[in-house]
Every structure is written in C-alpha cells, then in structure tokens.
Design a protein that fits this description.
Elements: E1 8-15, H1 25-39, E2 43-52, E3 58-70, H2 77-89, E4 94-99, E5 102-107
Helix pairs in contact: 1-2
Length: 110
C-alpha cells in the first residue's frame, strides 16, 4: 500500500439558491469544474444552514458543502480567487469557508 499525505483542506459552504430564491445551478456547475481542476476531485455534502437574521428571526438555507484535500493550497491565491469567483457570481453577502480547519467569512465589498 502506498499512502500520500495531503497537507491542505478546503471546505466551501454554498447555498443552493441565491437570496432571491433563484437556483445557483450554473455557479455550482462552474465550482465543480474549478474544484476538479484544483484538487482532482471533491466531496459534496447536502446540509442546512441556520442563523439569526438582522430582524432577530431564524433564517435557513439549503446548502452544499464542498470539501477538497490537496497540497499547496494555503496560503494561496487559488483560494482567494475561488471565493472571489463565488462572491462575483452570486447575490450572497458573504461566503463561509474553512481552510485547514480555520473558519473564514468573506464579505462582499460595497
């Protein structure tokens, strides 16, 4: 048996629909292609995200969590470019992601 150690991991939490309720199918499709190119494969997990909105009410989204493991990811412009692509192509105010277990929230610049 040959074992290869992969030094870096990335998880991206992306809603299935935008803030107006429209499916983000095209964005997910393009993300699939980018992750395959970056890591050679990925795991996709369906989940539900919940948080307290500005009005104090609980908000929820059906989300997909994308996980990859690879080498040479952190620190990397690749991660920044990937998250910027998601902000540029969705109406999300922020994207939640993790790199090597550390959580980040990338917010859209106004």
């Amino acid at each position: 048996m040959k074992t290869t150690r992969l030094n870096d991991s990335l998880e991206i939490y992306l809603p299935e629909n935008d803030n107006d309720g429209f499916p983000l199918d095209r964005v997910h499709y393009n993300l699939h292609k980018k992750l395959l190119g970056l890591a050679g494969g990925y795991t996709e997990t369906k989940s539900i995200g919940r948080w307290i909105g500005p009005d104090g009410k609980t908000v929820f989204d059906d989300i997909l969590i994308y996980s990859i493991s690879c080498n040479d990811l952190q620190p990397s412009l690749k991660t920044h470019n990937l998250i910027q692509f998601l902000l540029d192509n969705t109406k999300q105010k922020a994207i939640f992601y993790k790199v090597n277990g550390f959580a980040y929230i990338a917010k859209r610049e106004k």
